[in-house]
Amino acid sequence: MRIYNGGGMDSPKRSTAALAAMAAQMKRTIVTVCGSAALLVAVSPTAKADAFLSLQNGATLLSCNNSTAAGVAACLASGFTTVLGGNGIAFAGAVGGYSVFDLSLTSNSPGSPALGFATDTKTAVTNVSGGATALTVLFAVNNFALPAGSPLTLSASQAATFVSAAAGSSQNFVAWGNAANTLGAGPGNGVPVATPDCVNPAIAPPVNACSTIGVPVLFARAGNFALNGREIINLNQGGTANFQGSIAVTPPSVVPEPGSLVLLATGLFGLVGGRRVFRRKA
Question: Model's pTM, two decimal places?
């Protein structure tokens, strides 16, 4: 093997020394690159997100947690559609005396610099034989890394369209920002923000629409965090309606305009519902 330096050929002794020097330099370079890569991994948002969704009417409870392979298998057996470590879950089927044509939990976990959100959209919820009982939906998505900073602004909104329902049919929606980053959902799982109830003002049809927005609150976090929500739906027996609940977090000192929250609620409501119906028709 020949090593050239300035066009001249070195002696074997110098060649050996040069090789040793090159090897040492390459080793230092590799260590530097690996160290830089490790640092990038440490500060980059994790790509893995887990999700939880449950529906309950009376004694019937169906739930899905996609954080493990066994959990995903149980999800599929109960009528849910999801993947291991996915940031969303879908459901269609019966829950006690209620039926749900399509439910879609979506999120953008691990978030973006401007927004983190989780949205639960339910299409054609019908009280088939549930009498005066309610349908309760719990959901959670974890491993949000963005937006950066603390405290974040936590907001919540909801929307409903009462297709065929008695006056007084409603949805109650409360959201939580969870600094513990768990998949717990409901009271006790973080900082709450409540939205005014969405109430059907008169007999439908004709279709009646409703949307409400909660008062934003500050949400402190030290690392990755979770978003979770609870919806309590009350429909008269025979009634049908569509419902949606959305949670959003924005960077410190940024409070979403009320109009943007309404768009997030109603826009994702139509988009997700339409996408799910289209997929079923395909």
Answer: 0.77
